[in-house]
Amino acid sequence: MSNTQYSGVKVKRFSKGFVIAHAVNALSFFALYITALPMYTEWFDWLYPVLGGPEGARLLHRIFAIAFITPTFIWLIMDPKGFLRWGKELITWKKRDLQFFTEFVKELFGFKFKHVKQTFFNAGEKINSIIQILTAILIIGSGFPMWFPDLFPKAVVQWAYVAHNVGFGLAIAVVVGHIYLSVIHKNSRPGYTGVITGEVPAEWAKDHYTEWYEEEVKKGNFPDLDKNKNKKKGA
Amino acid sequence: MAEYIKYVDVTKCDGCRACMVACKNWNDLPAEPEEFQGSVQSHAKVTANTWNVLSFIEHEDSKGNLDYLFRHSSCFHCSEAACVKVCPEEAMHYTDFGTVDVNSDKCVGCGYCVQNCPFDVVQLATYKDKNGKEYKKAQKCTMCVDRLEEGMQPACVTTCHTDAMEFGTKEEMLKKAEKRLSEIKDKYPNAMIYNPEGVGGTHTVYVLAEKPSVYGLPEKPKVPTSAVVWKDYAQPIGKMMLGATSMALVGAFVSNKLFNKEGKGHEEDGGGSHE
Questions:
Q1: What are the residue boundaries of the Cytochrome b561 bacterial/Ni-hydrogenase domain, all occurrences included (chain A) (predicted)?
Q2: Chain A to chain B, count of Cβ pairs less than 8 Å apart?
Q3: Nearest-neighbour CA in chain A from B89: distance (Å)
Q4: Which of B115, B245, B249 sits opposite A157 (nearest CB)?
Q5: Which helix (DSSP H) or strand (DSSP E) does residue A10 occupy?
Q6: Average pLDDT, chain A
Q7: E strand or H helix at A123, and its extent?
Q8: ipTM of model
Q9: What is the pLDDT of residues B21-42, one digit of tens each?
Q10: Count of CB atoms within 10 A of residue A21's CB?
Q11: What number is the average pLDDT over the span B152-164?
């Protein structure tokens, strides 16, 4: 529950393709996490009976592994434009992206900060995306030799265990941060409802992704908030 | 407790295969008929239900003479066992005798040990529960640990009629191996003691008549580097990182409660701070 008041004007931020891809990605990631947890640490061995024994856990892990591969294609097919913009933004880095991080640390710990003008994805989201892409490649790429060890040379299978472990370790550390920011951290919380409904409060979008918002205003897609009212308090 | 090893002198072996029979018999392992191997050898290699295979090698020595080499093959019981290192369930473990055993109650059949054994010894056996559902467990030679606990020797050793196999304290057996090596050096110039360092030494130590590769053994077996990177670095660092991120976020949460009570994120001038 956000303490911040918004005027109620909503704008469309995420396409249906993105919303579905994101949901499939998130749910399969967690299902994979849960089904592998008893293998990762014996603290969670009690999960085996819940998951139908080691065999049940293994089967579920493989079913969700397939699901985990699909989001890229869901987004690409349903919203190729959005997908391409994502790709383009990930390789575009400017000075303001670095400034973002100094302000972000202040915001994270609840100190006063100012917004650094960002495009559709802010620098933090870009870092998150890049790490998730790399770790997904590591995890998926190593998953195949682990699943079908007979089809690969032994050394490949042996190093696949390492890659799977490193990929997962990095991914979960980043995911914990990603979820904290969306679900718990108050300033970015509208992003959480946004990634489910596709819509976010206009003022929030303008504050957090100013450049993108202004572009959309120019295109006539979004209301020009500065014209309507002077300034929103604490928006 | 003193460390015990099985000492195998392949030059005394006459290829009778009684050790194979004794192993199947004591450990209640089902018969596994295999295709003709092209020689007297019955099975290509050890499997989950055949823990002990006598290999027959037709070898041409440097003088062009044919030599028929026998080797009792089973688990090496490494001192630094890769299977123990990679097992995620602590099912693979060291016994009081220094040998390596599988705890079937803990084993989940993941096969990590199968993929990491430098000698290709560990395999998965498939079983069916009472509902007909299949499950797998890692299986291999146990060095008859159940016999050792009762003060007996491994079944293969007990049955060996040429004394090609002996079981005793590490010190005593290694001494025997050295002595035997000096005896056979004239006949077998390539003879050597196979007790590889890369796995911390083994608890099945051989006196081989020829180089290890002649017997299909790795010359310098070791715990795979990948297993070391994975278990000694990647996994502990991964767990630490997850802990560190979580702690940072708990810090962020608390700090937000302390410094940002009004729930306002940024400066009062709001929109004005964008540029």
A1: 13-187
A2: 149
A3: 6
A4: B115
A5: strand A10-12
A6: 89
A7: helix A123-147
A8: 0.86
A9: 999 999 999 999 999 988 889 9
A10: 24
A11: 97
